[in-house]
Design goal:
Blueprint (H helix, E strand, L loop, with lengths): L27 H20 L4 H6 L3 H4 L3 H5 L5 H17 L4 H27 L11 H7 L4 H4 L8 H19 L5 H21 L2 H7 L1 H18 L4 H22 L13 H19 L9 H31 L4 H36 L1
Helix pairs in contact: 1-5, 1-15, 5-9, 5-12, 5-14, 6-15, 6-16, 10-12, 10-13, 12-13, 12-14, 13-14, 15-16
Length: 371
């Protein structure tokens, strides 16, 4: 009689099962808020600051927009609104997702449009008719890595400093939450630990810790993560505590770095109350989306607006200088019309980048990284 060996039983995977990923519907209001934040930053770059845009207008934007330049100067806080949105979105997209998938999703989302924007701005600035200095080929190549900031290389895109902050947030979230597996407790500990680490970094005055924990911007990312926990359970006291503490710390850093009402040489005087109000707008707007209060804003065009936001953000500043100069100084178009046409042209360019670059390349890059 032949004795057959017992078949191997499937081994039970070691460790706890990964946390289930909550089922999400498209939060189109969040897409609309992204575009609002991007337009805030564009208003700041075109009419709320000095620098290169003064050369494009031919005079200070303060003279071009005697009243509006003060309001435009608050547009720089659109970056803080972006960071709150990013905290919400990254927690949502990273929940229940393995590390490889999270990395592939983030890389494929950021890199295609970024690479093309770097090459496009470099090519335009190299034209003889454009009066702005282009970077050396070596610096442009370093910019393709997104690591120009820590390497001390000049930036092709002025806005890419915010991408460096985003990348560091992704790395922290991936190591502390995505890699071990997302859960409510782990996300709460991540938020509490990062808040404490950022506070200690501020007290320690150590450059390395400052690079890692980003005390000036950490509270905005953390606040967004806390608002995603509110989205999962609006009765979560810990989540609301994270949001409240993040707002209180975030407004402090925003006021500290942007308040200039006492500076006689300031381009436009921002008040501390105005800065706090804009920061509060960012938190309240994302909270309204998290709580479902804006569920009625479910128009399809908001999805298109969200898709245009990232490429618009990348190209609007430097290429906007070129458009403003051409329209206002060379063709004599009034400042208000030039402002509107520049915004419209950058949105149109963003649409082409989305259609011709992001839509075909993003899924291919994601598939290649997952393979």
């Amino acid at each position: 009689m032949t004795v057959r060996p017992a078949p191997d039983l499937p081994r039970r995977p070691e460790g706890p099962p990964p946390a289930p990923r909550p089922r999400e519907t498209r939060l189109r209001a969040l897409d609309g808020l992204r575009l609002v934040a991007a337009l805030m930053v564009a208003a700041y770059h075109y009419g709320g600051r000095g620098g290169e845009i003064t050369q494009s207008w031919g005079s200070s934007a303060q003279r071009q927009f005697p009243t509006l330049h003060t309001y435009f100067s608050y547009g720089c806080l659109g970056v803080q609104v972006f960071f709150v949105i990013s905290g919400f979105v990254i927690c949502m997209s990273g929940w229940g997702r393995p590390l490889k998938s999270f990395f592939a999703s983030r890389a494929s989302r950021l890199l295609p449009a970024y690479w093309v924007a770097v090459l496009l701005v470099t090519a335009v600035f190299a034209l003889p008719a454009v009066a702005y200095e282009a970077l050396s080929p070596s610096d442009v190549l370093v910019n393709m890595t997104m690591l120009q900031m820590p390497l001390g290389v000049d930036r092709v895109l002025g806005v890419c400093w915010t991408l460096w902050a985003e990348v560091r947030f992704y790395a922290l979230f991936a190591l502390c939450v995505v890699l071990p597996g997302a859960s409510r407790r782990r996300v709460i500990m991540f938020c509490a630990g990062w808040t404490l680490a950022a506070a200690l970094t501020q007290a320690a005055h150590q450059p390395l810790l400052d690079v890692v924990f980003m005390p000036e911007y950490a509270s905005f990312f953390i606040g967004g993560v806390g608002l995603y926990l509110v989205h999962l359970d609006r009765r979560d006291v810990y989540a609301w505590g994270i949001v409240a503490v993040s707002f209180l710390i975030g407004q402090h850093y925003a006021v500290k770095s942007l308040w200039n009402v006492s500076d006689p040489n300031a381009f436009a005087h921002r008040t501390s109350l105005g800065i706090v109000a804009v920061v509060a707008f960012g938190f309240v707007a994302v909270a309204a989306i998290a709580l479902g209060w804006l569920r009625w804003a479910d128009w399809r065009w908001l999805t298109v607006a969200g898709a245009l936001t990232y490429p618009f953000y990348l190209v609007h500043e430097h290429l906007g200088w070129v458009v403003v100069r051409a329209l206002h100084r060379h063709l004599g178009v009034p400042a208000s019309v030039t402002f509107a046409l520049t915004i419209a042209s950058m949105l149109a360019l963003a649409w082409f980048l989305n259609r011709l670059v992001e839509k075909p390349l993003t899924p291919r890059l994601r598939a290649a990284l997952l393979r």
